[in-house]
């Protein structure tokens, strides 16, 4: 659910993991062996799944999954995706950028897709979400859904439609470089509560001005 992965076993248990920034699950042939970075191993006679550098790892009864993921908002790529509810949830944040990254509002949007979504919708990441029209908040979550849905079909994350190296994003990871839309300078700043700050890339010319915390 969202960025949380649930492997359900026929024993009635679930292996819950979260990749964070560096984790991965790798599928190898049955002869593969764990190394120092492996935290979990699932296998059959033919295949082995190695969970490496996992940021979170738990084993719970399947009927207790809600204790780990019940706090999450609508899953952007889940069968229960509800854009209307997700858009309403966004109104709870202090800034629309932080609200979009808050997994209790909607689950699955990280820093890359948050920045790209707000850029494409021409919304200032520091705008109060409660002051945005309902239609704008709905457009934001629907854009995020479209971007993630397209992204899951390819090995390389791309919001521009171009998978060539250096051409995959509009603003994310491009601080100090020209905006692909207006030619202005893309900037990066921290956003969110002090204990949960995240990076936010944006174009001041397209999205409402330079933030005082911008790095460059």
Polypeptide structure, described:
The chain is an alpha+beta fold. The chain folds into two domains: 4-69, MutM-like, N-terminal (N-terminal domain of MutM-like DNA repair proteins, Alpha-Beta Barrel); 83-207, Helicase, Ruva Protein, domain 3 (Orthogonal Bundle), CATH 1.10.8. The chain has six helices and eight strands, in the order ββββββαααααββα. It has helices spanning 66-69, 83-90, 96-101, 111-120, 134-151, 204-207, and strands at residues 4-8, 13-18, 24-29, 38-43, 47-52, 56-61, 187-191, 198-202. The strands form three sheets. A three-stranded antiparallel beta sheet has the order 1-2-6, with no helix packed on it. Strands 3-5-4 form a three-stranded antiparallel beta sheet, with no helix packed on it. Helix 2 (83-90) crosses helix 5 (134-151) and helix 4 packs across helix 5. The longest helix has 18 residues, at 134-151. The model has no long low-confidence stretch (mean pLDDT 92).
The coarse silhouette is globular
> What's the tally of helices?
6
CATH architectural designation of the largest domain: Orthogonal Bundle
**H/E element string?**
EEEEEEHHHHHEEH
CATH topology of the largest domain, which one?
A: Helicase, Ruva Protein, domain 3
* Amino-to-carboxy terminus distance: 35 Å
Overall pLDDT level = 92
Just give the CATH class of the largest domain. Mainly Alpha
- Helical content stands at 10-25%
What is the percentage of strand-forming residues?
A: 15-25%
Q: Which stretches are low in confidence, meaning pLDDT under 50 for 5 or more residues running? A: none
Total count of domains? 2
Structural class label: alpha+beta
> What is the strand arrangement across the widest sheet?
1-2-6
The main sheet comes to: 3 strands, antiparallel
Radius of gyration, in angstroms, nearest whole number: 19 Å
Instruction: Work out the number of β strands.
Output: 8
